[in-house]
Amino acid sequence: MSSPPSRIMYQSFTDPAVHQPYLSRLQAYLTEIAAPGVTYEVRGISPGDTQLGRLSELRCGVQSVAGIVAAAEEGFDAVLVGHFQDACLYEARTAVDIPVIGHGEASMLQACMLGGRIGLVTLDPVYLSWHSEQIARYGLSSRVVDVRPLRITPDQAVAAYGDDAAYQSIKDTFVSLAVTMVRESGVDVVMSAGGLFALLSARDHVEVPGALVVNPTLLAVRQAEASVAITRAMGTPVSRAGTFAMATPQAVKELLTLVKETRR
């Protein structure tokens, strides 16, 4: 028996007006890997998350919650937050009654089923403390054991989509960092901490001796698709007894008003 069709919104933290080459390529990739009967729609935010740091994560996270509320109202079956840092992920789950899957949480949990010691390659050193806190929040400190930075900006990663030499340089750095993690930390699974390099390398076979290289976007997509089926079977996307207790309608309204006013 085939599953009913489902629609999943992919909430990117990039700006459609600035990062369209990335978003178009992402939409094509999601369409290619989607399970039968599943459609994805990629949406961004403006301005995108280019000012790396906690304040930008907070601002983009709040905007993403507003986008997730809109997606739920439009009848989407789930939202995949396509930003590895998972800013405001827990808050988003309290705002809607559909599954909200975090790129970072979903891919790290799935990676732990593929190996015993996981290594991440992130874009910038500014994210090192953030990832450390993420890993601890998800109870994965003994499993996700190393994080190394590429030391590039999001704009540099996006620019590499049309520049083979730039991609090769980023790939070489990724592999070098991964090899170091294998040697120094004993990791046996490596993945990028984010979708930019994951999409850059989606059609390439990146090899690291001693470790499996996995695509976090693919892992998160499969988790999002599974979450729809699980929600349909259980009747709820999450437990409402504690961490993800439903926000009041007034709380949601106040957040939406805040976002609307800041856009004037």
Automatic annotation (TrEMBL):
Superkingdom to which the source organism belongs: Bacteria
Source organism: Nonomuraea soli
Name of this chain's protein: Asp/Glu/hydantoin racemase
Lineage, highest ranks first: Bacteria, Bacillati, Actinomycetota, Actinomycetes, Streptosporangiales
Homology family: Belongs to the HyuE racemase family.
InterPro entries: Asp/Glu/hydantoin_racemase, Hydantoin_racemase-like, Iso_Racemase_Enz_sf
GO molecular function: amino-acid racemase activity
Family matches, as Pfam families: Asp_Glu_race (PF01177)
